[in-house]
Amino acid sequence: MQLSLTQPSSWILLLLLMTNLLLWKNAASVPMCAMRNARCFTFFEDTFELAGSLSHNISIEVSELFTEFEKHYSKVPGLRDKSPTRCHTSFLPTPENKEQARHTHYEALLKSGEMILDAWESPLDDLVSELSTIKNVPDKIISKVTDIKKKIDAVQKGVNSLMSTMNGDEEKKNPAWSRLPLLQSDNEDTRIRSSYGMISCLDNDFKKVDIYLNVLKCYMLKIDNC
Ligand SMILES: *[C@@H]1O[C@H](CO)[C@@H](O)[C@H](O)[C@H]1NC(C)=O
């Protein structure tokens, strides 16, 4: 997308992007824009760059969280029984792997990323509050999940703003999420098992978001060999 700065509408767009990037800055300390030819521009590219980098970091952190949780609660009976295919996002029509992502139109790919990010908005809040009710949950797990939540919020804001820049505002429909009854159980082992199931879904989904946003980053920034 080219921004012509002589048009007022472009200035408004630029301001909107700046506002969004300022929000992002809280989560990731990257420059707000790149200086090229002594001018500050390419917000669009920079947003893709940031989204790619941040989503990659999130996917690593979620994976670490999953391993950490699994190690800590390995003695809980039936921990691994819950199949990761039963996630609230399973039915979303999103590419399964990098090969599929590469063959998806960039707008549809960004939309797929947005769908997954939006779908986790409430469940992630539930997970954070649920974990804090489990006895002796290591601080490391709580701080990791809080940090992940913050970063996911930032990527979501960025992706939402890229989507509305491309498409204008459209109506959004998130997959239905009603708090899992298991998450509210009085039995602590049950809550640990369902938290484990959710973290495994999160792990699965954010590997996908990482793939989508980095395929997009390569495409938008015209990077070779990735
Ligand atoms: C991702 O992690 C790397 C390595 O820790 C860091 O240098 C980079 O700034 C992070 N990216 C973002 C956008 O936070």
UniProtKB/TrEMBL annotation:
Sorted UniProt keywords: Disulfide bond, Hormone, Metal-binding, Secreted, Signal, Zinc
Entry superkingdom: Eukaryota
Main location: secreted
Gene Ontology MF: a single term: hormone activity
Positions annotated to bind Zn(2+): H56, D210
Keyword Nucleotide-binding: no
Family: Belongs to the somatotropin/prolactin family.
Record bears the keyword Zinc: yes
Species of the source: Mus musculus
InterPro entries given in the database record: 4_helix_cytokine-like_core, Somatotropin/Prolactin, Somatotropin_CS
Compartment(s) of residence: Secreted
Protein name: Prolactin family 2, subfamily c, member 1
One of the record's GO cellular component terms: extracellular space
Signal sequence coordinates: 1-29
